[in-house]
């Protein structure tokens, strides 16, 4: 019998998170803000997506499990920003639970942060250190503090 929730513990280490990629959208928003050509509006809610494939920088190749199989992006909130010597970081302040899956989701290998529950703009993305297989009946969880976003 499978455990009720499979932890998504194969996240990049804190040092690897420094290399977590900005999306094309976020890069453009940052440069617009820096040059004063546009003042981007901050998203009201951020959502975490999981994927069986690496998303392209524009988010076009993300391969999320099917909604009909019990999948949905999960809203995420982050704790206070911590300024370190080389980077500022923040991490999720509650567990992020996906599922339970009502069909096989496959080998989850990547995750991304979006500004919408469906479609929307991808903000950041990264790979898990190793894929995690999610089958029907399984749930998947990022533990509190496990999803670290760094900027430095």
Task: Describe the structure using short key phrases.
mainly beta; 2 helices; five-stranded antiparallel β-sheet; 34% strand; 152 residues; three-stranded mixed β-sheet; single chain; 11 strands
Low-confidence stretches: 12-18
Question: N-to-C terminal Cα separation, in Å?
Answer: 43 Å
Gyration radius (Cα, Å) is: 15 Å
Extended strand count: 11
User: What's the arrangement of strands in the largest beta sheet?
Assistant: 2-9-8-3-4
Order of helices and strands: EHEHEEEEEEEEE
Biggest beta sheet summary: 5 strands, antiparallel
Structural features, described:
There is one protein chain. This protein has 152 residues and is mainly beta. It has one domain (6-151). The chain is built from 2 helices and 11 strands; from the N terminus they run E-H-E-H-E-E-E-E-E-E-E-E-E. It has a 5-stranded antiparallel beta sheet. Mean pLDDT is 88; it is low at 12-18.
Any chance you could write out the topology, listing elements then pairs?
Elements: E1 6-7, H1 14-17, E2 21-22, H2 24-35, E3 46-51, E4 74-76, E5 82-83, E6 88-91, E7 96-98, E8 106-114, E9 122-134, E10 140-142, E11 148-151
Parallel strand pairs: 1-10
Antiparallel strand pairs: 2-9, 3-4, 3-8, 5-6, 6-11, 7-10, 8-9
In short:
The chain has 152 residues and is mainly beta.
């Amino acid at each position: 019998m499978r455990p009720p929730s499979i932890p998504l513990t194969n996240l990049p280490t804190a040092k690897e998170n420094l290399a977590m990629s900005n999306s094309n959208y976020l890069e453009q928003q940052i440069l617009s803000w820096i040059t004063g050509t546009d003042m981007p509006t901050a998203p009201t809610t951020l959502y975490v997506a999981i994927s069986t494939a690496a998303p392209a920088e524009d988010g076009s190749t993300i391969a999320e499990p099917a909604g009909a199989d019990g999948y949905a992006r999960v809203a995420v909130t982050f704790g206070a920003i911590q300024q370190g010597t080389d980077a500022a970081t923040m991490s999720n302040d509650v567990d992020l639970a996906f599922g339970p899956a009502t069909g096989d989701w496959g080998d989850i290998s990547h995750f991304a942060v979006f500004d919408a529950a469906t479609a929307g703009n991808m903000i950041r993305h990264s790979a898990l250190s190793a894929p995690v297989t999610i089958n029907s009946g399984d749930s998947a969880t990022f533990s509190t503090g496990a999803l670290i976003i760094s900027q430095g």
